[in-house]
Amino acid sequence: MRTITLIIIHCSAVRPGQQSSAQDIDRWHKARGWKGIGYHYVVRRDGTVESGRPLEQVGSHCRYHNRHSIGVCYEGGLNEAGQFADTRTPEQKRAMRLLITALCKRFPRALVVGHHDLNHMKACPCFDAVKEYDQQRP
Ligand SMILES: [Zn+2]
Q1: pTM across the whole model
Q2: Which of 25, 33, 57, 79 could make an S-S bridge to 85, C-beta 3.0–4.6 Å?
């Protein structure tokens, strides 16, 4: 397994009602010329956690930070008007907390951050992931 120092949280930047399954994202990322989905996990609006790229493989989700990180993406991130917004459902919040807790147990030295924390040009994931996940570990 790779050395993991960061768990990076993303949104898929889709509007309410627009689907972004791991399969959809895989197709979009292939269209960009990547080898497939860049995230390791996708958390759907109903709380289903879908696997993306295998954890052992370096992802493609945050420039300069892929080698030692895991990318977790929630479905959503845009409001009806197409503006960035924290659109996580209660089911997503619950599933993300469980997933991130499990990852923190497996990689206890990894920090949990949002994409925005590493690239201030990005609004993603539209909430403070450090405050919500890194500072509130079990
Ligand atoms: Zn992102």
Answers
A1: 0.96
A2: 79
